[in-house]
Structures are given as structure tokens and as C-alpha cells.
Amino acid sequence: MLERSGYTKLRVKMILTTLGFSLIPLLILGYTIYRQFEISHTNKILQNLNHITENKRRTLDLFLNERLSQLTAIAYTHRLQYFLEPETFERVFTLLQARSKYYIDLGIIDHNGDHVVYTGPYQTIRTANYKDEEWFQQVQAKGIYISDVFMGRRNYPHFIIAVMRREGDKSWILRATIDSDIFDSLVQSDQLGANGDAFLLNAENILQSKPRFGPRLLGKMDLGAFSRFPGVRSEMIEVGGKQYLFGLAWLENKNWLLAIRDDPTEELMPLKRTRHLVWVILAGGLLLIAGGTVLTSTTIIAQLVRSEREKATLNASLTQSSKMASLGKMAAGVAHEVNNPLAIIKEKAGWMRDLLSEEDLKASPNFKEYEDAITKIEYHVTRAKDVTHRLLGFARRMDPIHEDIDINQVLNQTITFLENEARYRAIEIHTAFQKDLPFVASDSAQLQQVFLNIIDNAIDAIGKDGGITIRTQAVHDPDEVIISITDTGPGISAEKLDKIFDPFFTTKKVGEGTGLGLTISFSIIQKLGGKINVESQEGQGATFIISLPLRKA
Ligand SMILES: Nc1ncnc2c1ncn2[C@@H]1O[C@H](COP(=O)(O)OP(=O)(O)OP(=O)(O)O)[C@@H](O)[C@H]1O
Ligand SMILES: [Mg+2]
Q1: Cα dihedral sign for 291, 294, 298, 304?
Q2: Is the pLDDT of residue 1 over 60?
Q3: Which of 241, 411, 426, 475 has the fewest CB atoms within 10 Å, measured from its CB?
């Protein structure tokens, strides 16, 4: 049988192996699913961001293009002379405003930088001269000009679009002021989520539209230096100590950078949820597998322990049986060989006794000694014959008969044999018999011998003052009758417990016990198809338990 620690080791090994084989694939699977989801989710986010950025850039370019073509069309359809009539110019402006309410005012500036005609709410700027201003130089050089957003004389965020027309050797400029609020509404939209943002930056990182978070319009928003690049780009940029994903695109008509900021927490929410889900599934799987493994290993080990124990019991009883068998053979031989000499010794001793009664021998001074010696020889021969008789009985035991017997009745009879002896030693015999105990198919004479042996032993063990309790009980599955005989004697030490059924094991004085009582009892019960067991602890009495099958096995 394996040691206790051996079972523990085996169990740990089983658990670890099963866990290893099932957990590793589970973890790999979980990780793969999560990675796959993460990749496709990130791709989706990037695609979405690029899409929004590209759309907005197109809208903004379209807006600027439209303004440019409107103004170019106006400048090139009529000569300067035509616009110098204030009502005419007013009408042109009204027409423009009808197309887009974001036009604030409109003016024409001659090649000297003087405002020659103006229509709009800021009449004070009529007299302004722009000759030295940078934008004036740029229109002269390039023909068209779109300014950055600025506050200017109007003290209101706006930008200007200017178109130059040459007429003969002179040139004039048609200039419109446009409310830059338009960019806020074009750039912002609800596509951006709760924490997303979008804004326009000029080449110096000055905000050209109002962001939802961070600095105000015309404030500085440093995303780093980006030289112009074609198309759309997405990049992780740190703003205010936090990393954000940005979609970036340069406008075609103006050196402005469109920046769309993604809301990271919102966008990563599904990813986080997936990670949680994966963890929960993994943890659940782990618990299930661990529970299952522990349960299985416990069951298997328990089964193993049980069968090992059964094997050990079987082995013990086989050993006992083989001891009995060899003892039986030996006993028959010894008894046979010893019996004849014993018979002769007994006969010769009788003959000597007869001779002693003759007169001349009676007169011998040693007559008394001779007589004592013969008595002793006869006594010891009788004792020896007793042993050989028991041995022969044990060896040539008759096959038991099987008749229906009432165990309670057999026990009562046995008790009557021993009652006097018990009373003499102040030992009380109690009985606790089950009423209507079913009959047992067995051999009453042989059973009586067993009960006698055991109760006799109990009386010997107690010596004086004590009690013996005899119980009977029927049990089911298997159908058996259980007889237990408990005494208040000194009990049996663990070391002796292993030997008490062995032939010739006795603790009694020479002449008082042969050590065959329990050996014979064991073999009888075994032949009757039952079992005999003993439970005892030193100092706490002993209990012999016999179980007999109701029917012959
Ligand atoms: N009820 C008991 N309490 C304590 N020891 C016991 C009890 N029954 C038996 N023993 C021990 O077991 C030994 C063997 O018993 P067993 O009946 O086989 O032989 P014995 O009683 O010594 O001799 P025999 O029965 O042949 O006259 C006893 O000597 C005794 O030491
Ligand atoms: Mg005995």
C-alpha cells in the first residue's frame, strides 16, 4: 500500500497535469481571441478617424473654393467702373449674402491701397489704406489671397478673401470679410463623441477655429511641427500630458492643418469590455477546470485507497488461511505421531500403578514417591492428549452442516455453560439481543464452540469483577447477523492484536492456554462463510465482532 504522502504526491501530479493540459490551450485561445479583436478594433477606429478627417477636409476646401470662385466671378464679370456706383455694389453684396450669411462686408481697394468703395457695417474702415499691409503685397503678387483668422479693426474673429483684377496697366482688389464662426460649425460635429475634438491650426499652430477643450480661438495648440503632407494621417500625440489619437490633414486652398482628436476612453471602451469578458471567461473556465480536476482526482484517489485497503485485508485473511492450512497438515501429523506413544505411556503408567499395589513394593520406603511420579505422568499425559485431541479435531474438522438456527438461542445456551464460572468471579453477563432475529443457515455446535472460546477468553481477561455484553443485530446489504462480545478487561495492545489469531499465541501460563482457541474460532467462522474481527485498545476492554451470512454463500 502506498504511503499517505505518496497519495498526496500522486494527487498533486494528477491535478497539475490536468490543469496544465487544459489551461495552456485555454490561455492561448483567450489571448488569440483578444489580440484578434484588438487588431480589428484598432483598424476600425483608424479607418473611422481617417474617414471623418477626410470628409471634413473636403467640406472646408469646398467652402473656401466656393467663396473664391464667387468672388473671382464677380471681379471678372464687370469692370471697376461698374462697381464704383454704391447702389450697384450694395446690390452685389446683398446677392452674395443671400448665398452665404457669413459674408460680413465687401470692399474694393485700388492699386494705391485706398478703399474706393465699401459696403458693410464697419463704415470707419472706409478711409483705411492698406498699401503697407502684408496681405496687400501678397494679393499683388499672387492674384488671390486667403488670410488667417484675426481680430483686426473690427475686433471680431474673421478672415478675408481677396481677388486681384488687372484692367489695363492698373489693378484693383475685391476683398470680402468672412465671419470665421463658419469654421467652428464646419469642423465640429457630433461624430466626435463625448470627449473628441476638432480644430484648424495655421502653420504657426495658432487655432483658427474654436476647439471644445483647451485654449480659445487664436490661442496656441502645439501638436508639433508638421510640414505639408498629402492625404490623411493618424498619429498619437501628447496634449496636456495625455496621449490622444489624432487624424490630420492639410487643406488644399490654405496652409491650415485640420486636426480631429479621437476620444480614447470612449473608443477603447469595447476593447476594455472585451478584455474583461475574456478575463471573466478565463477565470470561470479556470474555476470549472480546477474544481473538476480536484473532484476527479479526489474520487480516483479515494477509489485507489479503498481498493488498496480491500487488497490488504484480503491479503491478511489469505495469510491467516494459509497459516491455518499448514497448521492443519502439521497438526494431523503431529497428533498422529504423538498419540501412539502417549497411549503406550498411559498404558505403561497404568501397568506400573497396578504393580505398585503388590505387597513387597508397598513396603518400599520410596513407595509414596513412585505413586506421586505415576500420578504426575498420568496427569501430563492426559494434558498432552488433550492438546493432540484438539489438534486432531481442528485438522479433521468435519464439514459444517447448514441448518436454520436461532443465534440468540445458541448464545443463551453457551451462557448457561459459563454462568457459574462468571458468578464465582463476580462477572456479569449482559445480553442485548435483537428480537425476531432472522434464522441463520449455519452449524450450531461449531458456533457454540466459537462463542465458548470468546466468552471464556473474556472471563480470563477480566479475571475478577467486570462485565461482558453480548449483542445481536441483523443488517442488510449484505444480509447478515452481527454478534458482538464486549468485555471490560484490560484490552489488547496493537502489537498483540496482530497475533491473537495465530496458532499457539497465548499470554496465559503454561498449562492454562494452548493459544488455539481463537485460531480454531477463526477457521470455523471462515468455513461458515462469516467474518471475525476484534476491536480493542489497551486499557479499554475488547470487542469481538462476528458476522454470519443469513444464507450459505
Ligand atoms: N477478551 C480478551 N481480552 C484480552 N486478551 C485476549 C482476549 N481474548 C484473547 N486474548 C488474548 O489472545 C490470546 C489468544 O487467545 P486464544 O483463545 O487463542 O488462546 P488462549 O485463550 O490463550 O488459549 P486457549 O483458548 O487455547 O485455552 C490470549 O492468550 C490472550 O492474551
Ligand atoms: Mg482461549
Answers
A1: positive
A2: no
A3: 241
Residue 319 has pLDDT above 90, yes or no: no
Ligand 1 touching residue 493 (CB < 6 A): no
Exposed, middle or buried: residue 394 (CB in 10 Å: 0-12, 13-18, 19+)?
buried
CA–CA dist 181, 185 (Å, integer): 7
CA dihedral 276, 282, 287, 292 (to 10 degrees): 160
Give the Cα separation of 463 and 8 in Å (integer): 47
* Model pLDDT, residue 395: 61
Mean pLDDT, residues 98-127? 88
| Cα 324 from Cα 499, distance rounded (Å) | 13
pLDDT reported for residue 408:
95
Identity (one letter) of the amino acid at 256? W
- Amino acid letter for position 217: L
Ligand 1: which of 500, 510, 520, 536 to mutate, most ligand atoms within 8 Å of CB?
500
Task: Tell me the mean pLDDT in the region 534-542.
Answer: 93
Phi, psi of 106 (to 5 degrees): -145, 140
Grid cell 480516483 is found at: 300
Report if residue 4 sits inside a domain.
Answer: no
Average pLDDT value for residue range 270-295: 88
Q: What is the pTM of this model?
A: 0.54
Question: Residue-wise over 2-25: b if at least 16 C-beta within 10 A, else e?
Answer: eeeeebeeebeebbeebbeebbee
Q: Which of 226, 248, 267 is the last residue of a domain?
A: 267
Range of the structural domain that residue 359 is part of: 268-392
Q: The domain spanning residue 460 has which CATH number?
A: 3.30.565.10
> Cβ(507) to ligand 1 under 6 A?
yes
Q: What is the pLDDT of residues 345-404, one digit of tens each?
A: 999 999 998 888 887 877 888 888 888 999 999 998 988 888 787 777 666 656 677 889
Residues with CB under 5 A from ligand 2 (ion): 457, 517
Residue 397 has a pLDDT of 59
Q: What is the domain-level CATH number for residue 286?
A: 1.10.287.130
Distance (Å, whole) CA 170 – CA 114: 13
Residue 324 Cβ < 6 Å to ligand 1: no
